[in-house]
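Encode chain A's predicted structure.
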Amino acid sequence: MPAPLAKALAALLTLATLSACAPLLVGGAGAIVVDEAIEQEQGGDGLF
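Encoded structure for chain A:
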């Protein structure tokens, strides 16, 4: 996993543990990870 992506995920997880909106933040982070994986696999813009 690239370092900037890992840092972004760590920041989102930290926010998720401190927030009442944790399910939304975790879901958003998951969508970002899936999008990045599709970009790496297929090229192009991914899902978003």
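Residues 22-42 form the longest helix (21 residues).
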